[in-house]
Design goal:
Length: 425
């Protein structure tokens, strides 16, 4: 059945049979028993499917991957131990030493550092562009060895909305896929595949989990990109893999070539697998994702409106506010709401920002974002502190920027907490 996404949050993934547990069980086992050495050999050779070692697959994890794929509208998903691992694998699955990628510069600080430092040390070069770049500016960044275009649907923490259709159109014109991080809006509020994106990644530790209990990441494959049409650019997918006796992923797995290679090659070798317990906790969180996102967005809209009317607040960045520079794009790509995160500045700059945060009583200062509890952070001195002043400016992270993640507590209590903290300035 083609259920609404609200129903999919609850019903997809685990499909219990007769007499099986109604709730997804935790298969807390590293390995699985078989009576035939031949069967195990076929599993290792990818001739048949099945669970034999939790680093590659596990029934609990499989169910959660299926749920996330259903929510995003993809053909398959791969969970990882953290969001960083998902971003890493999504790129390294199709780019290798000597290759080049293009990324929007307004992205999470950890992802920026992954691309700017670690990938470059591995021989993969990167060109950063503004998420609002013109067609000509994006085109100018391409090279003959460019393998992908990357961006965040809603950037952390600057809240810039990516023009997904523009990026997808240009990427496809150059024969490369568009990979987007959809962590902030989640599939409840943004449907990247419907606008041309090819691969989606998430830090599942954020809204998907929703309770700040379990680290995790996920890669979702739309199955739409034609790797075989660009075979010479992606030899890892279109030429024999000798570690699997010469299989060609595009020939053996068709539309699922990308996500299958990501699991059987990179997860096999890098080992960034999630624990079954964390997968179970993630599934529990996603059961209520649709309800939580509605409340997050309602509360955040009210907080943004309150802040925009307070003279002690110098600026507010929230795409749900009419007049915000990202409002029109948000209405196109996230018409039912963006997320619960707001960025703003207070009169007095960086020192006043610190005083404001330390005066909050309900909201906690934590190195986290996007769970059901209201929290606050100063990105320039924490999540983005490794960036230079110029890089901070390019990423839209000003020294006075406060990232306020609105939870699902009662809106009167959240605004009351903000008001009393502003009164200390």
């Amino acid at each position: 059945m083609d259920w609404h996404i609200d129903t999919k949050c609850i019903q997809e993934g685990w499909k219990p049979g007769e007499g099986e547990p109604r709730v997804l069980p935790v298969y807390q086992s590293t390995t699985f028993k078989y009576s035939s050495a031949g069967t195990l050999g076929d599993l290792f050779d990818l001739k048949i499917g099945g669970d034999f070692y939790t680093r590659l697959s596990n029934p609990t994890t499989n169910a959660v991957e299926n749920k996330i794929a259903a929510l995003e509208g993809g053909i398959g998903a791969l969970m990882t131990s953290a969001g960083q691992a998902a971003s890493m694998l999504s790129v390294c699955n199709i780019a290798r030493s000597g290759d080049h990628i293009i990324s929007a510069v307004a992205i999470y600080g950890g992802t920026f550092n992954l691309f700017h430092k670690t990938l470059r040390e591995l021989g993969i070069d990167v060109t950063f562009i503004q998420p609002g770049a013109t067609d000509a500016e994006i085109e100018a960044a391409f090279r003959p060895n460019t393998k992908l275009l990357f961006g965040e649907t809603l950037s952390n923490p600057s809240l810039q909305v990516l023009d997904i259709e523009q990026y997808a159109r240009i990427a496809h014109a150059h024969g490369v896929p568009l990979i987007v991080d959809n962590t902030f809006p989640t599939p409840i509020n943004c449907r990247p595949f419907e606008f041309g994106a090819d691969i989606v990644v998430h830090s599942t530790s954020k809204y998907l989990d929703g309770h700040a209990t379990a680290l995790g990441g996920v890669i979702v494959d739309s199955g739409h990109f034609d790797w075989q049409a660009h075979a010479s650019r992606y030899p890892g997918l279109t030429t024999p893999d000798e570690t699997y006796h010469g299989i060609v992923y595009t020939e053996q797995f068709g539309k699922a070539a990308y996500i299958t290679k990501c699991r059987t090659h990179l997860m096999r070798d890098m080992g960034v697998a999630p624990s079954p317990q964390n997968a179970f906790l993630l599934s529990q969180g996603m059961d209520t994702l649709h309800l939580r996102m509605e409340r997050h967005c309602f509360n955040a809209q009210k907080v943004a409106e309150f802040l925009s009317q307070d003279e002690r607040v110098t600026w507010v960045n929230y795409p749900g506010l009419p007049g915000d520079k990202n409002y029109e794009l948000a209405q196109k790509y996230m018409p039912h709401g963006t997320c619960g995160v707001i960025s703003f500045g207070v009169r007095g700059g960086r020192e006043a920002a610190s005083r404001f945060m330390e005066s909050l009583k309900l909201a906690a200062i934590v190195i986290h974002v996007a769970d059901l509890r209201t929290c606050v952070l100063h990105p320039a001195s924490t999540t983005h502190r490794q960036l230079s002043d110029q890089q901070l400016s390019e990423a839209g992270v000003t020294p006075d920027l406060i990232r306020f993640s609105v939870g699902i507590e009662h809106i009167d209590d959240i605004i009351g907490d903000i008001r009393q903290a502003l009164d200390t300035l």
